[in-house]
Amino acid sequence: MPRPKAAARPHGRIILLSSPKGGTGKSSLARNILVSAAKSDMRVLGIDFDPQGTLHKWFLRREQVRERFPDCLQVEVKVAAIGEWRSALKTTGEFDLVVLDTPPSIEIHYNAAMSLCSAADFVVVPCGATQDDVDASTPWMATLIQAGVPAAFVLNKTNRRTKSYETARTKLLQVGPLCPVEIPLLEDIHVSAGKGLAVLDFAKAKAGDTFDALWSYVAREARL
Ligand SMILES: Nc1ncnc2c1ncn2[C@@H]1O[C@H](COP(=O)(O)OP(=O)(O)O)[C@@H](O)[C@H]1O
Ligand SMILES: [Mg+2]
């Protein structure tokens, strides 16, 4: 059944970042996707559902940068409790894209997390190339697939030359879709974040092509 057009919906398209494990790259990919969308002239909103507020703190740093450099693209981020997800989404109709960053330990908020994922157009499950990450994220992907939620793993912090990269890739492919773009382990990613920026804020960024490709993939999957 075709999904309703953006104008007919109470909120914009939703891309959600989710994984049961901390440190896999949810917040990092969320901010880079937000900036990619803003560069495509979309009105974007981030909602930070993680009480740690990583995405929101990044936004506050970005606002300070924007005071000095007004050309820096505007990306709004608000905070919300995951239990309040319905009301958080209600006021997002003016945005083309809403990017949801979520906390780890999904088992604590299982019902809310599942409902939120079901409301999303596309769920990105970032995963490192370690056995621990694979153990944590594969049951979650299986749950999403069973619930009919469109989702894909994104391998993050990768080093293609390692055996663990190949092993993780093989194991993830046995369970669910894998984004064809993986994100290497790169200093630029956390250095830019510390300044309230994303990789694509820099014209000659090392990982610029990678994040452009990631954006093309997620935008298509979310039918933007
Ligand atoms: N591809 C990457 N290369 C280098 N550092 C990364 C990369 N992805 C994430 N990081 C860093 O790893 C840490 C955890 O990432 P984060 O996005 O906060 O994970 P999560 O939101 O899943 O807990 C952060 O310090 C972030 O800057
Ligand atoms: Mg986070």
What does the secondary structure layout of this molecule look like, with pairings?
Layout: E1 13-17, H1 26-39, E2 44-48, H2 54-68, E3 76-79, H3 85-90, E4 97-101, H4 110-119, E5 122-128, H5 131-146, E6 151-158, H6 163-173, E7 183-184, H7 187-194, H8 208-221
Helix pairs in contact: 1-8
The site of magnesium ion has 5 residues, from α1.
Quaternary structure state of the chains depicted: single chain
Q: Terminal Cα separation, in Å?
A: 17 Å
Give me the number of helical elements. Answer: 8
What is the count of distinct domains? 1
Small-molecule binders here are: adenosine-5'-diphosphate, magnesium ion
CATH topology title = Rossmann fold
- Rg computed from alpha carbons, rounded to a whole number of angstroms: 16 Å
Can you summarize the main beta sheet? Answer: 7 strands, parallel
Strand order of the largest sheet: 3-2-4-1-5-6-7
CATH superfamily placement: P-loop containing nucleotide triphosphate hydrolases
Please tally the β strands and state the result.
7
Q: Tell me the overall shape.
A: globular
Q: Can you characterise this structure?
A:
By secondary structure, the protein is an alpha/beta fold. The chain has one domain (10-218): Rossmann fold, CATH 3.40.50. It is built from 8 helices and 7 strands. The chain has helices spanning 26-39, 54-68, 85-90, 110-119, 131-146, 163-173, 187-194, 208-221; strands spanning 13-17, 44-48, 76-79, 97-101, 122-128, 151-158, 183-184. The protein has a 7-stranded parallel sheet, sandwiched between helices. The longest helix is centred in the middle third of the chain and has 16 residues, at 131-146. The chain is globular. The two termini are 17 Å apart. The relative contact order is 0.20. Residues 26-27, 50, 54, 101 line the site of magnesium ion.
